[in-house]
Amino acid sequence: MKESLATRLALLAPAQGMVLAVLLVPALYLVWLSFQTSSFGLAPRFVGWENYARILADGYFWRALGNTALIVLVVVHVELLLGLGMALLFASGLPMQRLLLACVLAPYAVSEVAAVVMWRYLFDPEVGHVTYALQALGLPTLDWAVSPAHGLTMVALLSVWLHLPFTFIILYAARLAVPMELYEAARIDGASPWQVFRRVTLPLLVPALLIAALFRLIFAFRLFSEVWLLTSGGPARSTEVVAVYLYLEAFRYNSFGAAAATGWLMVLGSLLLAAPYLWRLGKAQKADA
C-alpha cells in the first residue's frame, strides 16, 4: 500500500523541523545581527553595512585572515601528502599492522585541550623533551611563545598531528576499495611501481583526495582551540586567526554585531578556499557519470 504525500511529509517533518531549528534559524538570526550594533545591556540598532566596513578596514582582521589562510593551506596539503603516503604504505602490507593502525588513529581520540597541554610541555623552551632533543641534534628550537613564525609553525604541526588520522582513514579506505585485478593487469603489462601509482592508484583516489581536502579545508578554517590555548593570538595578536578574532570581538569587546559579521566573512572565506576543490569534485563526478 503506497503512502500518500501528506503521510511522507508528516514523517519527515520532525527531522526537517530540527534542521530548521538548529541550522537555519540561527543562521538567519546571525544575518540580522550582523547589520545591527549590539552589546550587553544595549538594544540592537540597525547600522547597515557598518560592521562589515569596520572589520574590512581593520588591520588585525586582515592579519588574522592571512594567518588562517596560510595555516589552512599548509596543514591541509601536508595532511594529504602524509595521509596518502601512509595509506599506500599500510595497503602494501606491514608487520603488526593492527597495532600500527591503532597508533596512527590514537591522536584523533585525544581532546584538543589535552593535546595542547601535552605539546606545550614537550616544546617548552626550557624543560621540554622535544626541545632537549632538538638541541642535542644541533637543530633550532621553536620559541613559539616569542616568535610569531614559530608560533604559527607550532599551531600547524599540532593541527596536523591531531587531524592526520581523519585524512588517513579516508584515503586508506579508498585505497582498499581499488580492485586488485587492476594491479595484476598492470604488472602483467610490465608497468613499473611509479607507472602503477600514476596510472592506476592516483586517478582512482582523486575523489577521496578531493573529499578529504574539502572537509579539512572547512574544519581547518574554523581553527580556534589550538591557537587560543597555545598562544592566545600573541605575541601582540601576531598569531591570531579569524576564529580568535571573532571570539575577541564577541566576548572581549562585546561587539556582537561585528562578531556576527566576522562569522559570515569566515563562511565566505572558507567557500572561496573550497571552491576549486568543489569544482574539481563536480568535474570528476561528471566524468564518472
- Give the C-level CATH assignment: Mainly Alpha
Q: What topology, given as strand order, has the largest sheet?
A: 1-2
Count up the domains.
1
- Going by CATH, the architecture would be Orthogonal Bundle
Number of strands: 2
Mean pLDDT: 88
Rg for CA atoms: 24 Å
> What portion of the residues fall into strands of 2 or more residues?
under 5%
CATH superfamily: MetI-like
Task: Name the helicity range.
Answer: over 70%
- SSE class: mainly alpha
- Please, how many helices? 12
Largest sheet: 2 strands, antiparallel
Q: Low-confidence parts, pLDDT < 50 over ≥5 residues? A: none
Cα separation of the termini? 34 Å
H-E string: HEEHHHHHHHHHHH
Shape: globular
Please name the CATH topology.
Answer: MetI-like fold
Any key phrases for this structure?
289 residues; MetI-like fold; two-stranded antiparallel ribbon; 12 helices; 2 strands; 3% strand
Word description of this protein:
This protein is mainly alpha-helical. The protein has one domain (50-284): MetI-like fold. The chain has twelve helices and two strands, in the order αββααααααααααα. Strands 1-2 form a two-stranded antiparallel sheet. A hairpin with a 2-residue loop joins β1 (36-39) and β2. The longest helix has 33 residues, at 59-91. The chain is globular, with a radius of gyration of 24 Å. The model has no long low-confidence stretch (mean pLDDT 88).
